[in-house]
Design a protein that fits this description.
This protein is of the alpha/beta class. The chain contains 14 helices and 8 strands. It has a 6-stranded parallel beta sheet with strand order 1-8-5-4-2-3, sandwiched between helices. It has a two-stranded antiparallel ribbon with strand order 6-7. The radius of gyration is 20 Å and the shape is globular.
């Protein structure tokens, strides 16, 4: 393990059935209304009111939160003189709340400051709490916030270095995830898996983080297959939720570089199609990994053997690595994931624009050229 690092994660987690009872003062932030239909909204609001809290609301946060919605939330939070933002929902609501935390008292345009210049807050930030209703993003225990600018057709994430942007607490009750449709559950599962892959497929040293990543992936594969057969299986769903948190709370990225190109390409697809995030990742992953496999053959061989249980006997390293990706593809199809961007609403006329919107990262086994991004997108159609 060659990299030096510091590690701090100040988020306090309340995990398990009934964990919502620990809530504090909030401005309630939620999405399209599913928490009203499944009773979570009433449960949270009842607890707040019984404790004498004044509750303001920011409703209608969409799956890919927009800059316009961020501006709207700034006005509501300022008017409410908010002292705590509570996100009740999935990763998009949590992301939005963190972006809002950094923006309420920001005197500059938050898009320009945080998503163009990638600066850190120079103003007061508001504390954020999360009540998670969907497992996938890991947003409940990190400082990442993804916002979509519909005018520029860009979907960009900023992982803030400022620890104050991490949720002060998160409530993780796996029973809240049991009402999700299969499509959303599957998308969340792949989001988790790809978060791990983005941190795993880099580096050549013997790194403890990679061993942890392999364990998380094996756990997720096991639980995902159970949940795919029985969506009400609490044990499987609780393990999926716990894996999601550890997949992206920065632990497994310590001491190494990370890739993130699947996310950059997938987010660019999402900006053009407004498709579900996990499905955009699934639709471009295999084309990307098959493209970069020759540049990191040892890790892809290790991935095949240690994660997928590929028998290496009598096979070349390339054959082992390819067998691992084939096993991954079979699992993805088993879950019912979207395997191409055409099904998400993309077509060939969008390829050049999506490529232009894709941020190029340098931490993986291959720094892509724009031409390679175009090639991967065409392979993903």
């Amino acid at each position: 393990m060659e990299g030096n690092f510091t590690y701090c994660n100040p988020t306090k987690l309340y995990f398990g059935k009934g964990a919502v009872k620990y809530l504090k003062n909030v401005v309630l932030i939620y999405g399209g209304g599913s928490i009203k239909r499944n009773g979570i909204y009433d449960e949270v609001r009842k607890i707040l009111l019984e404790n004498g809290k004044t509750v303001s609301e920011i409703a209608g946060v969409m799956p890919n939160p927009t800059l316009e919605k961020l501006y709207e939330g700034i006005e509501i939070a300022r008017a409410a003189e908010a002292d705590l933002l509570l996100a009740v929902g999935g990763g998009s609501v949590c992301d939005y709340s963190k972006a809002l935390s950094a923006s309420v008292y920001c005197e500059e345009d938050p898009w320009e400051k945080y998503y163009v210049k990638f600066e850190e807050p120079s103003c007061k930030t508001l504390p954020v709490g999360c009540v998670l209703t969907m497992a996938g993003t890991g947003s409940e225990m990190n400082a990442g916030a993804v916002i979509t600018n519909r005018k520029t057709m860009q979907k960009i994430g900023h992982v803030f270095a400022d620890e104050s942007l991490m949720p002060r607490f998160s409530v993780l009750d796996p029973s809240y995830t049991l009402t999700l449709p299969h499509y959303q559950m599957a998308a969340g599962i792949y989001d988790i898996f790809n978060h791990i892959c983005e941190q795993y497929f880099s580096g050549t040293d013997d790194n403890t983080s990679d061993y942890i990543a392999e364990g998380l992936m094996r756990s997720l594969l096991h639980s995902s297959r159970i949940a795919n057969r029985d969506m009400k299986n609490y044990e499987a769903r609780s393990n999926i939720m716990w894996t999601a948190t550890w997949a992206l709370n920065t632990l497994i990225s310590r001491g190494k570089t990370t890739d993130w190109m699947v996310h950059m390409i997938g987010q660019a697809v999402g900006a053009y199609t407004n498709a579900t995030h996990g499905m955009t990742l699934a639709a471009v992953s295999l084309a990307y990994y098959r493209h970069i496999m020759p540049y990191g053959p040892e890790k892809f061989k290790r991935f095949a053997v240690n994660v997928w249980g590929i028998d290496a006997a009598g096979k070349t390293d390339e054959e082992i690595a390819k067998a691992g990706l084939s096993a991954m593809e079979a699992w993805m199809k088993e879950l019912g994931l979207t395997m191409n961007i055409t099904e998400l609403g993309a077509d060939e006329s969008m390829i050049e624009g999506i490529a232009d919107s894709t941020l190029i990262m340098t931490g993986g086994y291959k720094t892509l050229t724009r031409a390679e991004i175009v090639e991967i997108l065409k392979e993903s159609l």
